Amino acid sequence: MSTKLLFCKAKTFIHPTKQAGDNVSGFLIITSKDDLSKQESVLTWIPESGLNRKQANFLNAADVRFGGSEGNLGSSKMDSSILIEAVGMPWSFSITLRCLYSLEFRQPSPNGWWHGSIILHSRSPEEDDTMPVLFFHDDICPSSKERTKRLNKSFTPFSDSGEIYWGGIDFRNAIRKLVDLQKTHVEPTMWLVNATLDDLRNFSPQQLEKKVNLSRDELDKSKSSWWDRLESAKWGVMSAIADATSKTGTFVGGLVKQHPLVKLAERNSDNPYVRKMLENPRVQEVQDDFDSARVYLAKWALGVKQQADMYQKNHEIDSFYRKLLITELNFDSKSDVQFTEEELSTALERKFPVTQQKWESFFDSQGRLSLTVNEVKDFIFHGGVQDFDTRKEVWLFLLNVYPWDSSADERIQLTSLKDSYENDYKNKWLTRVEHEDPFEEEYWRDQLCRIEKDVRRNDRDLPLYQFNTVDGRCPDPQGNLPETDENGDEHCMELKNPHLLALRNILVCYNLYNPDLGYVQGMADLLSPIYYIVRDEALSFWCFVNFMDRMERNFLRDQSGIRDQMIALTELCQLLLPNLSEHLNKCDSSNLFFCFRMLLVWFKREFEFNEVCSIWEIFLTDFYSSQFQLFFMLAILQKNSQPVIQNLNQFDQVLEYFNGLHGTMDWNDLMTRSELLFIRFRKVMNVMDKKKELNEEIPNSTGTQSSGIELHELDENGNEELVQLPSTSTYLRSLLSKNIVIQREGPRTKNSIR
Amino acid sequence: MFQFKLVLLGDSSVGKSSIVHRFVKDSFDDFRESTIGAAFLSQTIKIRDTSSDSTEDTVIKFEIWDTAGQERYKSLAPMYYRNANAALVVYDITQQDSLSKAQNWVNELKNKVGDEDLIICLLGNKLDLCDSSDNGDKRAVMTDEAKVYAEEQDLLFYEVSAKTGQGVKDVFQSIGEKLYQIKKEEMLSKKGRQAASAKDSVNVKLQRPSTNDPTSCCY
What pTM was estimated for this model as a whole? Predict the structure, then answer.
C-alpha cells in the first residue's frame, strides 16, 4: 500500500498570536492510499520546522511542480514517514476529507493588508476547535508566485471561477476533485463538503432573507475562537461598508465614486476587458494606500451590488414562478388543501445535481451506502444525475441490478449475471433448433423479424446508433453519409453496428425470458436509453428485465394495463383539474386516449433523448409514487388546460394537439408541477379519509356540517359523487403506493400470437 | 376549402409513415422511427373542376392520421378511422404476408364502418425495390394479384414508392378528386331539395358527426 501525494502548498501559515514573528510556516498537503476511495483522502498540515531537509525538499519540489502544472495536479508517490512523523509535531493536524463539514475561503486583500485564509470546519464539533485558520502567504509561496506570474502574463489575473487568483483557489480546485463541494448562496465564502439536501436547502436563496441579517454576526462569533479576531474584524468592517455602499450610496459611496479609476470603470462598465484590468491587483498596487482602499471598496461595492441585483432578479423570477404555481396548482385560495412553504421550496429547488463526487460521498469505505435509500432517492428525484459515468452506476441501482445494500465487493461479484445472460439466454437462442410445430416456428421468425425492423430504425439520430458499421463509426471520415449499399436498400442490409446488434440481442433474449409477452412495438424505445447509459449488453439485459416488470402492463394484448392507467388519470383529472375534465368530456375525450403514446413509452417521443433520461431516472426512484408518470402526464394536462379549454372542441382536435407537443415542453417546469400535484393529491386523499372516518364515527351526521373539511372546487360544482370517488377508487389509492404495479401477459395461444 | 379526414392502415413497417412524409414534406428517411399510437399531419392539394365554369382551382385539405401497424395495437385503430372519409390500406410488395394483413384491414373497414362513401385505397409500397432490373427483383406480390382483389372489392389501387416518390402524389390527387366528386354530388342533391341553403358550403367541415362513446370500440 503506497501513499500518494495529491496536492501540496508551501508557505501556508498559522498565526498563533498577533505578532508576525510568531507565525508558523508549513505545508498543506492532501494524500491518499492506493486502494481507498477519494473520499478517504487525508488533509494534513505539517510545520516546516518539523521536517528534515530531505522531506522539506520533497514537499517544496512538489509545491513547485503543482504550481507549474496549470492546476492539473496529478499525483505522485510519497514517503509515508512524513505523515507518521507529522502526528507528533506542534500545531500539525490532519483530517479525512469525508469528515469535513465546510470550508471558508477568505480572499486576500489586493493591497496586501491581509493574507487569504481558509477555515476548516469538521463534522464533529470537538475536532473543529483543533484546526487553526490557515493563511496563504502567496507572496513567498513558490507555486502561488508561479501561478500569479502566468496569469498576469496572459492578462487574466483570474482563476477559472472569475475570482482574483490566490493560493486558496488551488486548494479548492484540488479538493473539489475529491469530494462534493457546493458554494452556499447565503455566505459566498462558505463551501459545504458532501452536503446533505437539508443543508443545501437551508443554505439556499429562499432561506437567505431570514438568515442574511444574522449570518454575519453568527459566523463571526463562531469563527473567532482563534486569534484571528483582528483579521475577522477588519474583514467584517470592510464587507459591512461595502454592503452599506451598495445599498444606500451614502457618504462613503459618494467619496468612492469620485475616484478617477471608478469613473473609468463606470464609463466602461460594459467592457469586460477594462473591468478585468481594473480588478488586477497590480493596477491597484500603483495607488497609494488610501486610494487603493477606495478602489477596492468601490470594486467590492460594485461586486456586492451586482450580486445583490442578480439575487434580486433571480429571486423575483423565483417568487413570480412561485406565485404562478400556487395560483395554478392550488386553484382556489379558499381550499383547505394548501402547499406549505417547505413543500413549495422542495419542489422548486431542483438545482443540486448528483455529481460524481456527491455520489461517491454516499458510500462508506466498503462501498456500502451510508445514507438511507430514501435520502439517495431524494437527491436523485430533486437534482438528477449530472454526468454520464455516474448515471450508469445510479441506473444499475435504480433498476435493481445492484442491490441498494450491497458493498463494492459484492457488486463486483455480480459478474455471475453476465454468465447467466450468456448461457441461459444468448446461447439458447444461438443454438436453438427449429421448432417442430410450424406455427411456432413461424411465430419465432416473425418475432425476430419485428425486432430487427424496430432496432434498425431506433434512435438512429444518436451518434451511438447512427452508422451501420462494424465499429459503429462513420465509414467516411469526411463525414459524408454512406451511400446505401449495393442492394440499394438500407432495410435489407445486415445489421453491423455493435450497439444496434446489442439492442437486437437483448430484445431477442427477452423474448426467451418472457415468451408470453412477445415483442411489442415500443419495447425498443424502452431499451434504447438503458443500453445507451449502461453500455454493456448483459447488464443492460438485466436492467431491461427489471424495467419490464413495471412496464409490461403497457403492452398487454387486451390493453388492460394502459387502460388502468388511463382510468386512474381520468379520476385524477376529475379530482384535481375539474374544469379541464369537464371540457374533455364535451370533446369526447374524457377517456384521455390522447395520452396513449406518452404513457406507453414514458414520454420518450415528446422529449430530447437526454431529457428522457433525466425524466426516467426520476420516475425510477418511486420517490413519491411508483406511478409518478401519471402525475407528470397530469402536469402536462394542467399546463395545457387553458388552450385546450379555449380552443378545442372535438376528439380529433384534442388528439392532434397533444400529438403535436413534441419538443415544446419544459420538463423541469413539468416535474415541479408534477411534484406539487402529487402533494396536493395526497392531501386531498387524506382529507377524504378523515372525512370518511368522521362520517363513520357519527353515522347520523350528513353532508357538510359533520365533515368540517370541504373541497371547495368540488362542492361548488355540486358534484357530490366526485367527493365519494377518491376514498372508494382503488385506482387512485394505488397511486399513493411506492410499490410497482405488476401486470403480466397471460399465456400465449395460437390466436393471440402477435 | 374542403377538409377530409384520411387514415393509413397496414402491417408494421410497410411504409405508412414514409408515404405520408413523402406526400406532406416530400422527404424520405431510411430510418423513420416506428409510429406509436398515431401521428397526425395535414396537407392541401388543388383540384381542377372540369365540369364547372369556374377557372379557379378548389383547395382541399387532408387531415391525415398515420397509425401504428403492429396487430397488438389493432384494437386502437377504430379511434383513428372513425369519421374518416378515406382509408389508405398499405402493404409491402416485397412481403406476401403484408397483403393478407391489408385484406384484413379492408374487411374490418367494410364491416365496422359500413359506409358506402368511405373511399378505400389499396396501396402497394416499395416499388423501388422491384423496378431496377440490375439489383434483382424483390417483388413478392404480383401487381395483378392485388389489382384483381382491389377490383373485386371496389377499391382504388396503386403501386408506389415512398422512397423515390413514384406515384405518391397521384394517389392523394385521385382520392382528393373522388372525395370532391362525392361532395359535389351530395351538395347538388341537397341543392335540388333545398336550393337556397347550399351557398354556404365553403369552409364546411366534412367530418361525420362523432359517436357519443369513443371508447366503445377500444375497451
Answer: 0.79
